[in-house]
Amino acid sequence: MMLGLNQKISLYGFNNLTKTLSFNIYDICYAKTERDKNDYITYIDEQYNSERLTNILCEVTKIIGANILNISKQDYDPQGASVAILITEDGMPCNSIDPSCNKGDLSHLRDCVVAHLDKSHVTVHSYPESHPDNDVSTFRVDIDVSTCGEISPLNALNFLISSFDSDIITIDYRVRGFTRDVNGHKYFMDHGMSSIQNYINNETLKKYDAIDVNVYNSNIFHTKMMIKEIDLNNYLFNTDPYDLNPEERRSIRNKLSKEMIEIYHGLNIYDRMEE
User: Fold this and answer.
1) How distant, in Å, are the alpha carbons of 23, 186, 209, 257, 264 from that of 229?
2) CB 112 within 8 A of CB 80
3) Which of 36, 123, 179, 240 is the most exposed place for a label (fewest CB within 10 A)?
4) Residue 263 binned pLDDT confidence (cut-offs 50, 70, 90)
5) Under a CB-based contact definition with an 8 Å cutoff, are residues 204 and 238 in contact?
6) Beta-bridge partners for 25
């Protein structure tokens, strides 16, 4: 028996199921010169620094109905950022919270913050990337939302998708452990689930090609999405597409498409075709 997210099982004790949403996006950009590449990486690093990522994760915490125990964040040199938030489903008495937890107050950050995990956590890591011999640069963001109890990270999925310019999206959702109802019956899943796509806004889905790879008997769900239309206005950095001739525009679209297809399938497809 499986129930919807808004339906509740009368449990004996705490809900011991662990629900984990892994959300991975790629943003693709055409940057031909070394200056363009550097400017793109700088732009991404400023646009998605640890402060902005922290704000996104704090909103995720609100959406799923959790409370913040601790925030730890870091910007890296030369690029990238990481944020980790420890959360709890229910508010905890102040005298029960470990003294190392900052409860979301970053005004008195120390050099190092160490805290104990209560029930759940939210993390994000960013990876700007480029190569000197390639005109295409990429920006990857990995977000993990892991919850215990009755709250589900699926509620934050649409917000996460809208928070980034996503050309490729890879989403994993898995449920681990078991919980019991008041009669002692085990539940390995506490809500109905057939596809991650059922939790994504229809207007968003129209913009992407999407496929599922699910293992239902193991409560593992996987969805991959790739943007359908390549509008060069959204992909050129420091370049106006109308300044390019049709052949150049076609060549750029082909390079962007090649990068997206290979990331989408996780294979160097074109290299294999040349062998």
Assistant:
1) 22, 46, 10, 10, 15
2) no
3) 240
4) very high
5) no
6) 141, 169
Q: What is the mean pLDDT of residues 50-61?
A: 89
CA 94/CA 41 separation, integer angstroms: 42
- Segment 122-138, tens digit of pLDDT: 888 888 777 777 888 88
Neighbours of 91 (CB within 10 A): 9
Is the distance from CB of 64 to CB of 147 less than 8 angstroms?
A: yes
Task: Report the distance separating Cα 200 and Cα 133, nearest Å.
Answer: 37
Rounded-to-integer distance, Cα 144 and Cα 122, Å: 6
For residues 265 and 258, give the distance between their C-alpha atoms in angstroms, rounded to a whole number.
Answer: 11
pLDDT bin (cut points 50, 70, 90) of residue 2 is very low
The predicted-structure confidence for 193-231, as pLDDT tens digits, reads as follows: 899 999 999 999 999 999 999 999 999 999 999 999 999
From 56, 44, 170, 225, select the one nearest 124 (Cα to Cα): 56
Torsion of CA 44, 47, 49, 54, to 10 degrees: -130
Q: Residue 43: exposed, middle, or buried by beta-carbon count in 10 A (0-12, 13-18, 19+)? A: middle
Residue linked to tokens 């109802």 = 181
Instruction: Find the DSSP H helices in 98-245.
Output: 157-162, 202-205
